[in-house]
Amino acid sequence: MPHSIQPIYFENAVGRITEHAAGYALVRYHPVKREPAELRALLTHLGNLLLRRNWQRILVDMQAMEPLSTPEKMLLMEEWYGGHIPRPERLCTAYVLAEKALTRLSIYELQQEARKHHSSNAFTSLDEAHAYLLTYR
Fold first, then answer.
1. Contact partners, residue 116, CB within 8 Å, separation at least 6
2. CA separation for the pair 128, 123 (Å, rounded)
3. Distance between CA 13 and CA 11 in Å, rounded?
4. Of 39, 45, 97, 122, most Cβ neighbours within 10 A?
5. Residue 136: phi, psi to the nearest 5?
């Protein structure tokens, strides 16, 4: 289950990446305003973990996340989805939706872009997201 204790791979002001025993990366965003450089660092470490472990699955917990700024959206679109940050070509991502409506709106466009590049789906709980990732091979 996603609630079990997992080894921390990387953590900064933006969030924490842990390695789930089921073979996926779990990214939990902290409830803070982010600097693009810190978001880039988190994404770089995420890509490195996925490549090192030969994983393609990510569970992204956005429940406490603050809305994305325009520079953050551009960074995600250009560097993560644009392939400038090394990561596996194909991914399966399960998003746990943010509690704040403004945050959900700020990431809606990015989730549409994500669906163009890889399998992804949004959920309201960690358990649902975890179950979805277990069906992807």
1. none
2. 6
3. 7
4. 39
5. -90, 125
Cα–Cα distance for residue pair 74/36, rounded to 1 Å:
10
The predicted structure's pLDDT at residue 91: 93
CB 47 within 8 A of CB 41: no
CA separation, residue 95 to residues 88, 110, 124, 130 (Å):
18, 11, 8, 10
CA distance 115 to 119: 6
Residues of the chain with pLDDT under 70: 1-5
Taking the C-alpha atoms of residue 133 and residue 137, their distance in angstroms, rounded to an integer, is 8
pTM here? 0.93
Could you report how far apart the first and last alpha carbons of the chain are, in Å? 17
Q: Rounded to the nearest 5 degrees, what angle is found at the Cα of 35, between the Cα atoms of 46 and 69? A: 100
DSSP string, the chain: -TTS---EEEE-SSEEEEEETTTEEEEEE-SS---HHHHHHHHHHHHHHHHHHT--EEEEE-TTPPPPPHHHHHHIIIIITTT-S---SS-EEEEEPPSSHHHHHHHHHHHHHHHHHSEEEEESSHHHHHHHHHH--
